[in-house]
Hints:
The strands form 2 sheets. A 5-stranded mixed sheet has the order 6-5-4-7-8, with helices on one face. The longest helix is centred in the middle third of the chain and has 16 residues, at about 110-125. By secondary structure, the protein is of the alpha/beta class. A hairpin with a 5-residue loop joins strand 2 (about 80-85) and strand 3 (about 90). The chain has helices spanning about 35-45, 110-125, 150-155, 170-175, 205-215; strands spanning about 55, 80-85, 90, 100-105, 135-140, 165, 185, 195-200. The chain has one domain (about 5-15, about 55-215): 3-Layer(aba) Sandwich (Glutaredoxin).
Amino acid sequence: MTVASLAIGACGSSDASTDAPAESSGGAETSATAVADTSAVSAEAQGLQQNRPVDVEGGSLVPYDGSADDPSVGTPAPVISGASFDGTPITFGGPTENPTLVVFLAHWCPHCNEEVPELISLNESGDLPAGLDVIGVSTGVEESGENFPPSEWIDEEGWPWPTMADDEELAAIRAMGGTSFPFLTVLDTDGTVLARRAGTAPAADTVAFLDAALAGSGS
Length: 219
């Protein structure tokens, strides 16, 4: 099932009426190329699955439209349970020891390919807020898209955090109200939403976004 048929916004866009994942809000075009069968075979041989079942407990957040006054802030996020590419259980939402940044990524999205190294660099430089947990969610999988399979893409990028594989219906990102990629959600230790953001941003803006979100944390 394609992203286009699910009517979720294109990479970097908050427009839920997009027809295909090939067009970004900034006008940059996401090229989709044929992928060699060897990549998929290699992933399967390792027991990796690019989509895995997702369970959502609780009501979904309202779709994010980029408004400064996000109505989801301060409301409980749904508890989303799934697994990594290799089947390791992953859950976010609900009570946690630390605040959590959830990053929804699509392997074919050019803005996601900008966001991933930006976040990795912030982590390596120690500029991410202390005590912040990070979880990635691979979503919007397209076999014909660039960087397929996402399990290899995220590994080659050097992503250091756990990564959940969304299901084919994009249940995880839909439950969090995501309408585009990349999509960031900051959750407090009690599972409430502290902030949401769509699209990529310069490193300094990302740090400011996270600092402002965590300033409202009750932890």
